[in-house]
Amino acid sequence: MKNQKKLTILIGSILGVLVLTLGITSAIFTYQETTNNQQLVLGDIYMHYQEKNAISLENALPGADYKDYFEFTISGKNTYKQKDIYYDITLTRGETPEDKEEENRIPDEYLKFKLVEVGEDDTETEIFKDKTYTDLTNHIIHVETIPKNTTEEINKTYRLYMVISDKILIGNIPEAVFTQEEWPNVFASIKVNVTGDFSVKEVPLTGAETIEKAIAEKAVNNPSCKTTVVEDGITYISGTKDCINFNYVWYSGKLWRITAIYPDGTMKMITDSNITTIAYGANNKFYTDENTTSYMYQWLNQEFLPTLYN
Fold it and tell me: Which one of 52, 225, 227, 233 is most buried, by most CB atoms within 10 A?
């Protein structure tokens, strides 16, 4: 709660500071498959990429609404009767500007994305929203196909939105990602690649998606397992160990269990075993304000918290 209060104050204090995010660039893709003699083409097989507009943001602030987008179109035909063409949309880090230093790049996990497909009447169909990635090194964000035996050309237009997460800390405190003096030189640069072939591709699951998949499988394999409750968009995980045996995390030398998944993909964890038996204190309250804190609150923040890895 203390960090949340700091976050509100710090973000409010950087209004008007320039944040540069470079225009998103792209890779063009064409594909043909031939027989083993490399002469006979197995039908009319191709896929092209067309960039329509790139993002260029100035005065961007954490937590801003999705407004600016990068738009691109995939077109292709696949008259080959044996296999679908699978293509993936991939994000990776763009180049560092000449006037910037790499250490001033916004860390990957503080960039937030939304992907939509655009219809003929300019309507948007959301594919995903508020996704973050801890490592943008050729990270697949979406997979589609150009089906086999396609005689008509297929065209699909996408828009990729990007904003800075409001979870980033900016200010002159130890927890800050950037100081206020560093912030004017901070930048984000993202590259979109589209590649395809006949190999089956899948989007990598996030930690939250992996847990949700395990929950769904448990419900199918053992209907008596009541493993989750959803309230206000938050998925709470509970149940006996024979039903809930997939949510263990080994972190900072301790075994933890995931107990809740929030709409943005973040998760709440508790240690699997008790870590102390310290009493709360005379007033029996965990935390009220900086002048009234329990022994437990002080121990957790002063003794236990420093043992966790960043």
Answer: 227
Token pair listed for 67:
């407004």
Q: What DSSP element (H or E) covers 86?
A: strand 85-93
H or E element, residue 266: none
User: Is residue 9 within 8 Å of residue 166, measured between CB atoms?
Assistant: no
Q: pLDDT by residue (tens digit) across 172-199?
A: 887 888 888 888 888 888 888 888 888 8
Does pTM top 0.70 for this prediction? no
What phi and psi values does residue 307 have, to the nearest 5 degrees? Answer: -80, -10
Phi, psi of 213 (to 5 degrees): -65, -40
Question: Per-residue pLDDT tens for 12-61?
Answer: 223 323 333 333 343 333 344 433 333 333 456 665 656 665 565 666 77
Q: Helices (DSSP H) in 176-270: which residue ranges?
A: 207-221
Contacts of 16 (CB under 8 A, 6+ apart): 59
Burial string for 224-238 (b: 16+ CB within 10 Å, else e) reads ebebbeeeeeebebe
Residue 219 to residues 76, 178, 239, 264, 296, Cα–Cα distance (Å): 39, 44, 12, 23, 37
- DSSP bridge partners of 75: 48, 155
Pairing outcome for strands 287-289 and 292-293: antiparallel
DSSP state of 302: I
